[in-house]
Amino acid sequence: MGDFLHSFFDIHQILDVLPTLLGEGLRNTLIIAALSLILGLAAGLLLAMLLIQGQWWLRAPARIYVDVFRGLPAIVTVSLIGIGLPSANVKPFGDSPTGYAILAIGLINAAYIAEIFRSGIQSVPGGQTEAGRSLGMSHLATQMLIVVPQGIRNVLPALANQFIVAVKESALVYLLGLAVGERELYFIAQQAQATTYNSSSFVAAGLIYIAFTVPLTHLVNWFDRRLREGGKHPTPTDGQGDDKTLSPLNTTTLEAGV
Question: Are 91 and 85 in contact (CB under 8 A)?
């Protein structure tokens, strides 16, 4: 029992590695996760718009991309981009592995976010599109100003969950051999374990992951409940009750009779 506690809960090892985990590791983990999510959001929205098109030749490339990157293990994608591209002398980010890490995780996120956006956009009632077109708006304007904003609102909790996934997937960038100052949580813990042959550094890193992701998960769940409960309140239709100003979207819907 003493050996077990020493291997996993050595307080001296934890205290030694904790400042580096919090100062360097957590910062870089969040930077990699945030930037990769921004890339994933931009690419995912574009892919989602292609996935809902009627022409097969627009849908096919997006569907192939989504299927490939969702089908590949994340560790394979990180290796192909972070190790494969530099070895092929394709170095858009120079010799720094951080850019390749962000690109790899961003491309992975894009595939999942595309499906999240697609489901959210397709969940918007068809009457919203008809309302926009009846007011003389083009198909593109109707999609971008009416349908897409509603679809994004529907999937905000799922997008927040994807950020949590990106935080955890950032641990895979240890494969790229990050330099001092660029290391994320897992890589710092791994280096400490390799030096001391003690796994307490992994426990410390795991506690930091949990301390960040678990409260964020509960916050996402709370936000999801608020969105669902907010949609259940009846709207006055008989002219009685509070005088409320209609939003542009509600005005559009009412004018179209939907």
Answer: yes
